[in-house]
């Protein structure tokens, strides 16, 4: 079990590097002692981009969000799909630490786990160093389906778009991840609650190695919605 932020294990060393002591935003939060995942709808601003496309921008240099352990910010929209089919998102990061992940949320919903309503979602993220990760967040805890992996199909240039497609094959229960038109990996979610439908959204990680407030982080998502 690991945090989405690949840098968390190194964060303690930054105490002596002048980074802030940390801040917990006053917004929706998962249970105490869980990884720092926050629903931050107000930081993901959407606009009509023409031709049926919606552009969503995650942009901030607010030092309140710059912490030693990092913050993972996400948002979802709509009523949710009865069953996930296929989704394609173009995404780019123009500012921010290259190793910080960003990507998509899908199959977000609340599920009965041990008699409690528990939020859960699937996540695919990439970063500017050519890595990607797939995982599941359940009750604020991230479980990866294999830690960060490298692929030559990710465009590592700052500000350049990568096209990420996730498709679900109902017949065999597999999800397929494609990046820039190439199949990268097939994965399954068979552990209860097995996620097959729900809301879509976006996710971005603010790392201890970002530079707030000097530059901050800018991430762009383009999608037909």
Task: Walk me through this protein's architecture.
The protein has 225 residues and is mainly beta. It has a single domain (8-224), classed as Exo-inulinase, domain 1 (Jelly Rolls, Sandwich). Helix content is 0%, strand content 50%. It contains no helices and 15 strands. The strands form 2 sheets. Strands 1, 4, 6, 7, 8, 9, 10 and 14 form an 8-stranded mixed β-sheet that branches. Strands 2-3-15-5-11-12-13 form a 7-stranded antiparallel β-sheet, with no helix packed on it. Strand 8 (131-138) and strand 9 (141-144) form a beta hairpin. The protein is globular and about 45 Å long. Mean pLDDT is 85; it is low at 1-35.
Output mean pLDDT: 85
Question: Which structural class do the helices and strands define?
Answer: mainly beta
According to CATH, what is the class?
Answer: Mainly Beta
SS element count, helices: 0
Main beta sheet: strand number and arrangement?
A: 8 strands, mixed
Rg value: 17 Å
Instruction: Give the distance, in angstroms, between the N- and C-terminal Cα atoms.
Output: 33 Å
Question: What is the succession of H and E elements?
Answer: EEEEEEEEEEEEEEE
- CATH homolog superfamily: Exo-inulinase, domain 1
Morphology: globular
Overall number of structural domains: 1
Q: Classify the fold: give the CATH topology.
A: Jelly Rolls
CATH architecture heading: Sandwich
Helical content band: under 10%
